[in-house]
């Protein structure tokens, strides 16, 4: 086996699905390679740029045709993962498909059917580890997406592993996280100590585990704004523009488009011959007035919405107060693309600052669209910038600026003054920001140390952390409500609490407490399992030992060899159960016989065979009579001892009395069979079914006991009675 664990996550977004592959050292190898500091850090999760693959469109487009999502969409993603992961590690590799905003919008029935089909296809066509469909294939809420992103950012920035190098003051060493997609936006951060106490019920308790098995806990606030992503915000913006324009007008001036650009209401270029080109449908015409664009997009923040739980930021959604002295944010996705793909690609590696960004956006959006097209074709801003990116960036830039500074409240400051020039987006500034630990209020990032900041990385860090064996009393890895122990809504990192270790109680629990705690359904299965084990042991212990065990059990529950009073004394409940006598005893109602002894002798010294089994037994293949039972000394010889004729039922002649006065046993272990007067001497064996004389003696002894049990004395020799 190799030294690496692998994990696969499919990010099922609204526009496409991207597969991410990660690896981390197996725990034994990590311990071997770790130094003292490494033991106190999280597992090192790695990836590679070639391990990611994305296809379009998203899985949500298969809502009405779920049977096609596997072969038409997932197959190439699975094949890509299988081409990276070693074949012998595939069964040990967990796979997750976590869907976001696009699938959230599907009707309930379509969403559930689609997720079920995805899981079924993965289980049938791959050998990936997928034990629980509900956990591994699911739609995650925006809050969870934000929390995973927070983990990824702080993991890459080393806020977790090197807190001393990221001291933001007031004992704070983690970074806030901002994410914006097409449909929604997220925020996640750890409030300062005062706000954490004040808004404790609003926080999530996150628990990770370091290589040495110790737990690390963080209290994080996370929320999402559905409809506040870049695309959904533009849709709301266009609707607001339409409300201010005469309904008969077919041209709508748009300050958020470059000068001279014309697009449809949906933002698509206008083709010749269409209704928009003929003036029969509404079209938007760019005016290139960015400052006006800022004014028009600001109301979309919904800052005036009722706030039921103060304080609120956007749309009346409660968020604890942000202390920007200690809360420093990194932004990904649209925060990076909108600030860097156009405005910084010509000046690679420059960081965001408000003054520089404003200058560049004003210059770009005030340009004539025809000039912008020429620059796009010349790759002035890089090969990733196409016509669609260029025509959307002015609205997105205005929306991003309003969200950051008017909505969230991030201060409008640059990293450095640069002698008052207002232009401070230099590589030296970014390098200094890294040296300072990104201590400015906001920085847009895409990769840190060559690794993309993605919420999928945060999910895998959480899972890898959960696979570390817990130290003593270490709590489970995952997240839930901000209460001690394991809350009812706790989400385990891999969907399984098997590695959760200590459960949070003050006292250590024994294994049986762990086994039966909150799990009544385990009990019947456990009983059946124990019965199977007991039956297997019984069958494997051999015929003689089985006979011994059966005899002891019948005596214990009140079978032959135990008096009725003894039976009631040991198990008083048996007589009260209907039919119990038939279940636990094989003799009819009547006198039961106690075993009479004058000396101690082990039960295994001599065992009497059943009457029925002896009657059915004939001589062996060599003509010698078989001796049933097991004995010590001569009693176990292969040839029967000589008969004395008058021996009482149950023992051979001679040696029974010689062993310290042992009295004869006067009963069969199962029942006393009536004597057969027609027995033939040729069938005589060293058993209780021997000669007619012994059978008559047994019958006479039985009659004497029935007439006067108290005066009965076992007989060893008829002549001496």
From TrEMBL:
Belongs to the GDA1/CD39 NTPase family. Gene3D superfamilies: 3.30.420.40, Exopolyphosphatase. Domain 2. The lineage of its organism: Eukaryota, Fungi, Dikarya, Ascomycota, Pezizomycotina. Residues 610-697 are annotated as: Disordered. ATP binds at residues 182-186. InterPro entries: GDA1_CD39_NTPase (IPR000407). This is Nucleoside diphosphatase. PANTHER family: ADENOSINE/GUANOSINE DIPHOSPHATASE, NUCLEOSIDE-DIPHOSPHATASE MIG-23. GO terms for molecular function: ATP binding; GDP phosphatase activity; ribonucleoside triphosphate phosphatase activity; UDP phosphatase activity. Keywords: ATP-binding, Hydrolase, Membrane, Nucleotide-binding, Transmembrane, Transmembrane helix. Coiled coil: none annotated. GO terms for cellular component: Golgi apparatus; membrane. It comes from Rhizodiscina lignyota. Pfam families: GDA1_CD39 (PF01150). One of its GO terms (biological process) is UDP catabolic process. The active site is at 145 (proton acceptor).
